[in-house]
Design goal:
Elements (H helix, E strand, L loop, with lengths): L2 E5 L8 H10 L4 E7 L9 H14 L4 E6 L3 H9 L5 E5 L6 H13 L3 E6 L17 E5 L13 H15 L5 E5 L7 H7 L3 E4 L1 H4 L4 H9 L1
Helix pairs in contact: 5-6
């Protein structure tokens, strides 16, 4: 079963309440929270995403899928644990060594939250293998992190396929999330590659009827 995590990156100011309610009605599975610090990536959405997350926590029971694109992962984890997310995903590239990766995994789990690791398009998929038995999700970026509305990088589909095969060969129970450029034209190739959670923002939020797009993505 494929699930959809709707990115709120391009939600218009003043329309948060209407958008969140409409996405609930349209049966999105998660709200995807793109947290950027202006350092790890150029854009800074930190305060905006914390505000939206806090608001969702008050009005919705749908799970928060928090994606940290930040240099100071520990601080961001501490900040966003306050909104009780379902999962916090941090970037492998933001960690200085393997010990830091393991420490973050342990810390997030100890705070009753699932944990995911994200990798950029240029990071080798093999770099994440040793951590897979200890996490709940691997997020493969199918665009360069930091901007919405980009086109999917086709080479990243091979990484998803390779990851899927490795997971199956080693009997690891884990979700594969794909994020970037996912729309009705690209979704089939992403699903065939092996992703079971699809992050989509622009394609959903630009549609007149969110439910039509979300249903199509899930097919």
């Amino acid at each position: 079963m494929v699930e959809v995590s709707t990115s709120l990156l391009s939600v218009k100011k003043g329309e948060e309440n209407k958008t969140i309610f409409a996405l609930e009605v349209a049966k999105t599975d998660y709200f995807h929270i793109d947290v950027m610090d202006g350092k790890f990536v150029e854009k800074n959405t930190y305060d905006k995403m914390f505000g939206i997350s806090s608001y969702i926590k008050r009005i919705s029971n749908l799970p928060l899928d928090v994606h940290l694109m930040v240099e100071d992962v520990k601080k961001a984890v501490d900040d966003f644990l306050a909104v009780e997310p379902n999962i916090i995903t941090f970037h492998l590239e933001a960690c200085k060594d393997k010990q830091e990766v393991y420490d973050l995994i342990k810390y997030i789990k100890e705070n009753n939250c699932k944990v995911g690791i994200a990798i950029k398009p240029n990071t080798k998929i093999e770099d994440v293998y040793e951590f897979l038995p200890f996490i709940h999700m691997c997020l493969v970026m199918t665009v360069e992190p930091g901007k919405g509305g980009q086109e999917l990088i086709k080479e990243t589909l091979d990484k998803i396929k390779t990851l899927k095969k490795y997971i199956e060969d080693n009997n690891i129970e884990i979700d594969i999330e794909a994020d970037g450029g996912i729309n009705l034209a690209t979704v089939d190739s992403v699903k065939v590659a092996g992703a079971n959670i699809l992050v989509s923002g622009t394609a959903i939020l630009m549609a007149k009827d969110y439910k039509v797009i979300i249903d199509e993505l899930k097919k």
